[in-house]
Amino acid sequence: xxxxxxxxxxxxxxxxxCSEEKSSVNFMAMDTIVTFTIYGDSSGDAASAAKEExxxxxxxxxxxxxxxxxxxxxxxRQAAVSELTSELLSQAVFYSExxxxxxxxxxxxxxDAWGFSSGELxxxxxxxxEVLLEQCHSLSIxxxxxxxxxxxxxxxxxxxxxxxxxxxxxxxLLSSMGVTSAVLSLGGNxxxxxxxxxxxxxxxxxxxxxxxxxxxxxxxxxxxxxxxSGAYQRYFEQDGVRYHHIIDxxxxxxxxxxxxxxxxxxxxxxxxxxxxxSLFIMGVEKSSEFWRxxxxxxxxxxxxxxxxxxxxxxxxxxxLSDPNAYTLEVIS
Amino acid sequence: xxxxxxxxxxxxxxAVVLAVAAVVFIHxxxxxxxxxxxxxxxxxxxxxxxxxxxxxxxxxVGDGNTVLVEPGRISMLSADCPDQLCVKRGAISDSLYxxxxxxxxxMILISGSTxxxxxxxxxxxx
Lengths: 332, 126
Fold this sequence. Notes:
Chain A is an alpha+beta fold. Chain A is built from 9 helices and 17 strands. Chain B is of the alpha+beta class. Chain B is about 25% helix and about 35% strand.
């Protein structure tokens, strides 16, 4: 009799384990839509804490929020900064150096000039661009303890790296709260934590840049960042020409490398964010060279002629949704 | 076997069957599928079951946006934002890609899935 009762109790426990608690929050922060999906007993508390923390980070890092530390730094040229802002600034400097300046943290004057901050497109003249580019290239950041200083002209815009850094920070916060299964999505940035409650890997789709109602393909993912930069995310159209928001620091104009979507997959969300923007600007050839030299990440690049280039590290776990729509080429 | 034991086993078996039935029901009902949620400045202002819509209608969201609700789909009919990206987005009917009006902080998300095939847990690049 006891044995039967034990078996029945075990079955009950197993069944209760099937429907693990899940909490999701949707909100807007960092100029994008944020979705956190968290599994586990305390997922509700964890989701609230994660949302609160991200809103706090947004207030620290936004170049346009008058209360932010970056705003204070841009306007006063010197400011006291928190440990988080200081770390993000030093990461921005690091990726700028790593990419030979392709990742650029000083694009604020150019983003303003094109109207991406105000939402109203203006096409700067060649003379204006020359002056603005000089400003952007002259800027450097000096960090000392809890103080940051801007040297040169222009201002800092961390839009190309802040979401990735924030995702890493939120993932760490959730881990410290005992969360072992979650997926974070900040606009184009996805960060997976652990695996799904049933033990299978997360399935992350990459949007098709030619048709945002479809997927380009799917990646099986565990504990990593997947970040996509696309020309379709923010843009203006004028006289039939599309002006997207990823500005090439060489030309001061929307990047025109032949790449229409760049996805970076790696363990580090900050790296994935900074490099997805960079590879979009570099194009296929330079990105492949950079990948061979630097390593530590994989990429998926979609070129405007309909070819999808994937590095060999991701080729096994990336599948095209419609193999007839694109030609797949593996980079080694 | 004592009668009390039989009652005990019967109770457990009944509980197990009910639990299984509940789990199956929740999965098959697909709770939350096809529900469009409209947010304004981070707050939910409207939840609409698109599958239950039979006639089209519009909703004003905040001061500048008008949303068009149609059977099975939803779109931004007009907005006073300068870039008009939300209006150009057209109608959406699944959870793949939301409608966002960044200047006015309005977003429309469809929860769950109305599509078929393998569904992802997250979407990079949206």
